Sequence to fold (249 residues):
Amino acid sequence: MSLLDVQRDMRAWLAREEDAAVGRLGGDDVAPGLRIHQNNFRAQLAACLEESFGRTRDWIGGDAFHQAVVAHVARVQPSSWTLDAYPRDFPATLALLYPADPEVAELAWIDLALADAFVAPDAAALTVADLGAVDWDRVVLGFSPSLDLADLTTNAPAIWSALAEGVEPPAVAQLPEVGAILAWRDGEAPRFRAIDQLERQAVLWARAGVPFAGLCAALAEALGEDTGVVRAGAMLGQWLSDGLIVGAD
Fold:
């Protein structure tokens, strides 16, 4: 039996409790030790999730969170060399477990996005003064590598903030229409901000390489020329204030 075969059987046992793998690894003689390894393996995965989703745990409670962790460990196996990547699928598991409570998965997304933003690559943010010589007919804005965004259907940002501050969170509220949320790191501080779908689309266009003039034109078409240009300028000002813009080429 090769080392690769042993590794495959060990993985089959840890992930799926395959009895056939136990037999190939030594049967009853090794079964107690394999159970110890399996318990340690699952405990490490559970601890990883516990450390990554503090506000989500605060919201649904310790017992419910533990059950969600158990379900996730059974549903999703590690696919990376580092445990740092394992939490990334947990919001999707929560969306499956709590289809009638979308704020749960959205809270988990915030927990995860802020943690990812904290360890994202550094990039110096531009200021208004840095844009003095920019050709606004051609310039393409570059966003912070820490930036992430997702759709938003509830007041999860307000709930998360209250939980983080240790105050009574508001009741769950559905947004009048689907919005979005940004998460990024400003200096050393991870941050998030709820936005509307129009700003979400503008960010996506800009990240795809659409020049700022193209963003202005698209917003003018959607909102009317005067309103669109004003909105584009307001977005740019907010992005600079947030420390989101790191390039203007």
